[in-house]
Amino acid sequence: MAVFVGIDPGASGAICLLDTRRKIHYFQPTPNLKCSALSLYQWLLTQHALDPIHLIAVEDVHSLYGMSAKSNFQFGFNLGQVRTVADMTEIGVELVQPKVWQKVCGITFKKGMSSPQKKRHIAATALQLYPKAELNGPKGGLLDGRADALMIAHYLSIKYGINA
To answer: What is the pTM of this model?
Structure first.
């Protein structure tokens, strides 16, 4: 059994630490005004000291057509922070494209699904595997990035033969 970290680096993304032995998952926000890169780095090192993290996977994403220059800049800045923090831990970082982790996790989309529908589908799959995962906020809406981060960590557990 092992501990993996999955990171959805979006502007309101999330980081998920998945302990496959105890089927426990913890979430942290990606660095932003409320969560600094330093606090994320310290959290990862603390978790690694408690139970060694096998590997960190960061979703390998790029700018999106149609996004404003400001949004693309912020997206790139957040991605850079997350990748730098992950590299600094010296744990090991793997970049994974969305289509790759989704395929390995058995997530397929029907033609014409909107982005919100895709997000709900990913969350439904995550909840089938991890029913206790806190993917929704107090008003019932999906907390951005959590389902993706959990499934990216789950992808690592499948890839390395350590399924939760």
So the answer is: 0.90
